[in-house]
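subagent[fold] <- orchestrator: predict structure for attached chain, return tokens only, no commentary.
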Amino acid sequence: MKGLIGFFLMIIGVAWAAMLGLMALLELLFGGKNSQPMNFVYIMPVGGVLLILGGILYLAAKREAKKQEVRAVNIYENGIPGRGRVTFVDKNYSLLVNNKPVYSIVEFTFEDHQGRPHTGRKENVDSDLVIRAQIAVGSEVDIKYLASNPDESALLIHEPGWGREA
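subagent[fold] -> orchestrator:
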């Protein structure tokens, strides 16, 4: 969400500066003797501030997304496979498409390789996939976790009939 907000702030900043620059140019060309194009130029830096703020938000979101991607690949490639028991499943109403949630929240518990209990929670699991895989409270799911930090876990949902992971 930060990335989207940052992107729109950058667009607004560029549009702000461009519009005021165009207005200043038109004032200079067609304003006659009493033209004051600097009135527009004085408020152009607001566009620059919006552009910089938007850029910072956008880059921060990109960096966080890259960290999450690296973490997920690390869990998938180096994680210890295990089984978890689903303790909570519900629709995630924070993102709606046509007034319907497209993601579900799945919470599960599992024991690591040393027998210690852990809880994992995934907030953005494709709701259609949850339904097709028949994930419900009490069902078992495949997971992977890092031996060095078992709280870093991934939920592996196998697409029914496809033989592949989602």
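orchestrator: received. Logging for downstream: The helical segments are 2-30, 38-41, 45-78, 127-132. The beta strands are 80-97, 100-111, 117-126, 140-145, 153-156, 158-159, 164-165.
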